[in-house]
């Protein structure tokens, strides 16, 4: 089989990872959650009490740790060296700081190279903010998922509740808006819809509806 690459981008909590995991399962290909890589670095930076704005110090951390994504039945687990940080990287302190870490150009350069390497020898469905526009500009399929802020906050609230992560709906809405603003306005590969991406508004669609629509778009490449 030819390799296939599917890029799924969009703002925070638009349902990218849930849908990407389902697609990966259905097609039997690898799921790469690029946000988890930025989250892992943020987690480690917070652990070491390093100034998030200090790109040089953040790069020193990135250069000394190994961030690894491992596939499992549920989707993907995230490791820093041998430590499983899958749950830890979803906690509110990491979420509140990740966009500061992700704006550093040197950080992005290294992360993007690792992501491109993963797609070189594997069929992948990769989700993030700059996959179609920057990481995999030649992806076979590019999707840009959007949904209203209210709907995205509700979904994230429910997701957090199920995981036992403390959350408040209004705070989530504010956090999502702030993260979108930072991600869209940074200089290095901001959140942007690639010109050739298909935009899907998922506000009133179920996860299965979105997955099926994307699978239809992928059909010619399977
Ligand atoms: O997708 P998720 O919400 O986990 O991403 C966390 C953060 O990581 C985003 O808000 C963004 O700042 C950063 N990110 C990015 N580029 C990507 C994926 C995530 O800048 N490709």
From TrEMBL:
Residues annotated for ATP binding in this entry? 10-18
Q: Where is this gene product found?
A: Cytoplasm
Q: What is its main location?
A: cytoplasm
| E.C. designation(s) | 2.7.4.25
* Cross-referenced Pfam families: Cytidylate_kin
Q: State the similarity comment.
A: Belongs to the cytidylate kinase family. Type 1 subfamily.
Q: What is this protein called?
A: Cytidylate kinase
Organism annotation: Oceanobacillus aidingensis
């Amino acid at each position: 089989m030819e390799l296939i690459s599917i890029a799924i981008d969009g703002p925070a909590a638009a349902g990218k990872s849930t849908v990407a995991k389902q697609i990966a399962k259905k097609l039997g290909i690898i799921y790469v959650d690029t946000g988890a890589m930025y989250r892992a670095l943020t987690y480690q930076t917070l652990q070491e009490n390093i100034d998030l704005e200090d790109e040089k110090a953040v790069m020193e951390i990135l250069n000394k740790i190994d961030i690894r994504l491992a596939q499992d039945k549920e989707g993907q687990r995230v490791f820093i060296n041998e430590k499983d940080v899958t749950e830890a990287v979803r906690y509110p302190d990491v979420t509140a700081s990740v966009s500061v870490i992700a704006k550093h150009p040197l950080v992005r350069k290294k992360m993007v190279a690792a992501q491109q390497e993963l797609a070189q020898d594997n069929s992948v469905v990769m989700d993030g903010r700059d996959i179609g526009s920057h990481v995999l500009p030649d992806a076979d399929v590019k999707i840009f998922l959007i949904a209203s802020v209210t709907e995205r906050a509700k979904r994230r609230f429910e997701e957090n509740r199920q995981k036992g992560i403390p959350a408040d709906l209004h705070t989530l809405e504010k956090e999502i808006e702030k993260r979108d603003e930072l991600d869209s306005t940074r200089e290095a590969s901001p959140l942007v819809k690639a010109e050739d991406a298909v935009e899907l508004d998922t506000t009133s669609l179920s996860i299965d509806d979105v997955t099926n629509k994307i699978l239809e778009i992928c059909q010619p490449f399977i």
